[in-house]
Amino acid sequence: MTPLFIAQIGLTLFVFVMLLSSAAGMVYVERKVAAFLQQRLGPYLVGPKGLLQPLADVIKLMFKEELRPRAADAFLFALAPVISATCAFAAFAVVPFGGDTTLLGLIPEGLRLQVADVNVAILVVFAIASMSVYGIVLAGWSSNSKYSLLGGLRSSAQMISYELSYGLALASVLLVGNSLSLTDIVNRQAGAWLGFIPRWFVFVQPIGFLIYMTAGIAETNRAPFDFPEAEQELVAGYHTEYSSMSFAMFFLAEYVNMVTVSAVATDLFLGGWQGPFLSESFGWVWFLLKVAAILFFYVWMRWTLPRYRYDQLMRFGWKILLPLAVINLLVTAAGVLYFGA
Amino acid sequence: MPEPALGDYLALSAVLFAIGVAGVFVRRNLITILLSIEIMLNAVNLTFVAFGRALASADGQIVVFFVMTVAAAEAAVGLAIVISLFRHRESLNPDSFTSLKW
Amino acid sequence: MTPFYLFAAIAVGASLLVIAQRNPVYSVLLLIASFGALSGLYVLLDAPFVAVIQIIVYAGAIMVLFLFVVMLLNAPHEETHYDEQVHPLMRPGPMRFGALLALGLVVELMWALKRGAESGRFAGGAVSSVSAIGRLLFTEYAFAFEVTSILIVVAMVGAVLLARREGAR
Predict the structure, then answer these.
(1) pLDDT of amino acid C104
(2) Residue C81 needs a FRET pair 20 to 30 A away by CA distance; which of A66, A225, A289, B102 works?
(3) For chain C, what are the domain ranges?
(4) Of C5, C45, C49, the CB nearest to B53
């Protein structure tokens, strides 16, 4: 029971609570930003400036009746949202969000702000992303309804198609960063060229960043790649038959996945917690700012771009994004060989 | 409880392999037979990794890499065959595909 | 209880349930649980790369393929008339023979292990990092690596061709 051990347990709980509240916060941010983009006000009645709106949403969802179609497979129907939510939270466990900190001197040695320091962290993120397909497939199938089944199959086909480009973008960063550990990659992005351009990998791998963000948006089933859960197309796709807290779990999973993709993108491409003016222990402030910027970009994309039709989506993933990712990888490999990392 | 030794891992692998063999023989559903084959391949993977660790060599993990790739290829082709068989007879029971029997 | 026994119990239990389940969807999900336990065992054996690759390739890709096929075929449950009443060891014919054969296999393998006496403790120290594996893959095993890539292409083409409908373009 050393102070470090207690601090690590505290950190795990803290990360969990923070992810939950970030999902709640994202609900509010999404509605406010959508409203302002559409030149209206959004929620403003509940609490000052509508800040308590997510709380009202959660309370409403908790009081709704939990329905289950009679022909649905009960065990799988209940299991699917659990799988989705679990994978969403688990993926964040290996993401570092700050440098070594001693919590203002409370603990003797530095505590890395990361739940689990694994030296194959990039692969772990990828592995858990590929497991989250199951939540959707099982939800679609176990609901025993044609909209759900179609939505589930389409959504999972989309996810596994974009996983390839996601993986290749990760591989390109891996070539430049020379390590599978996220902490090592962030530490390599310290310093600056010419004194003011930070050594972020987004300047070394701009196309890789774009591919990663596009694949990430498709992986999390967000617009413009949200055909499988669009209301106008398939009722609500794989979560048609879900209500109350199960539905809330799917939404929680979606927002937490968004946060995870943004956090990994920040670590890989935007320098993680590195930033000027603040010491290493307060790097998490920079991390938060960068993740917030990417999340704003996510929401902005959703309410600006029209949705891709499903065949356009698949064509884009296989015929455009995947060759681009492969070419990016080859060019990066050539560059690393020539310039010697 | 003592630290597991190489023998423990091999015993576990043997049990898993035997479960896979039993699955292939006993089950009358093509998909479950394919799943049992995957169990057997995994048991072999475990043996390779355990020996690689015991002999302090990375070769065990390399072979596992190749076994996994071959298993993926075999599962894909096997499932394609199952799909075309199903289209003919609407059944996944291997006992219903007996038209070549004399 | 060391993690080894926990993971081993999950792996064996899930595998037994895989071959005992009647519903193929449950079989696939139980096999995924078994793969997860095996992945944990690989971590215990100081092979983190193989552990993660097991999740990515086996549990995340091959099993998704199985699940898709099971769902799209709406795979019926087994229809032998032995299913309800009779235990596999009692069913006549190849099934009983097969089950007994598997039991015989386990007994024989255990006997061989006991005879092999010193299957000793593990040597100290972790074996390999990912970069060591990568280096080996591209130097000593480079030929196998290239041939495997051809194998995958062949399998892809074969699978698409085999699953095509008759008469479709």
Answers:
(1) 87
(2) B102
(3) 1-75+122-127, 139-169
(4) C45
